[in-house]
Amino acid sequence: MPDQPVVLQKRFRHEEEEERKYEKEDNLAKKLFNVEEGQLCGRTPFSWFLIFLFIIIFWICIVFYWSLLYYVFASGLSGEYPRYFMDQPGLSFEPCIIEKGEKRIEYSEGSEKHIDLYTEKIFKSLAKYGEVPPNRFGLCTEESDFGYHHLQPCFFLKVNKVIGFKIDAYKTGADMPKEAPEALRTYADELSSESTMKKIWISCTADPPLQFLHFPAPYVEDKDIELNSGTFYVPKDESQLVVENLIEEEKQISRENSNYYNLNDFKRIIAVRPSNLTHNTNHSIKCQMWAKNIVQETQSTNSLMSRGYIRFRLGVKAPGTHL
């Protein structure tokens, strides 16, 4: 056969790149919607139907399972009282600041910033209950800066309310354990037997020793901490809340807490004031509750948590010195 002429067609690189680009675009369009095979994003309508059916059934099962759990747990709860009760009231104090793993009240007498830090915490903790009744806390008043400028810093002990708890009180000082401070036992013996029957006694001791004044007295009464079911939230009306002597910040704090606290809560708060504190001495303070059915113990998992008592450090620096 005679040789056939070979025709060579010259192709430029940009033409080849454009062809590849068109091919990619065509492939992408087919992946999104392939008319020939009836596919959308690579799946047939029946395949998409199965996917959406699975999603719907899956979420129906999730909702059913959550509703079942909610019903099981809710059926075991009462709207009037909690399912589990504390076996005794808790004890807390203000101003409570935790530093280096310890609760502390330590400040420099020459530092307004340090003093304001503690007095502000006291102010806010009391304001949520309303206006402090006159003379309730003796010398520990906002007007005196709670004693923080006079080497007599007050701290406030609060006993929590407990549903169903009934005080089994020590009726005399001799009835108290030997660990109870002598001053507390003497105080209890000076009261009539009837007035000692329904009280949780409160004491504070210090190392090195200090003398403490308690306002209004070193005890709380049963009626102020014992609660029956259904009465643990006591709302107060606006007449109790908006008192002319309250500043606007106090009113706001009281409104936010009005469904949980009221003026009667001041009866379970005791102000404590050291009377012979000296500069630059660090004291270890221990405040305890005393009743026959009050247990005093430290939780093994958290040294900051305790039952029946609280511990903290107390010290006041003279201006320009360190503890």
From TrEMBL:
The chain crosses the membrane at residues 46-73. GO terms for biological process: intracellular potassium ion homeostasis; intracellular sodium ion homeostasis; potassium ion import across plasma membrane; sodium ion export across plasma membrane. GO terms for cellular component: sodium:potassium-exchanging ATPase complex. The keyword Transmembrane applies. Keywords: Membrane, Signal-anchor, Transmembrane, Transmembrane helix. It is a single-pass type II membrane protein. It is found in: Membrane. The keyword Transmembrane helix applies. It holds the Pfam family Na_K-ATPase. Its main location: membrane. One of its GO terms (molecular function) is ATPase activator activity. Belongs to the X(+)/potassium ATPases subunit beta family. This is Sodium/potassium-transporting ATPase subunit beta-2-like. It comes from Glossina fuscipes. The gene is LOC119639530.
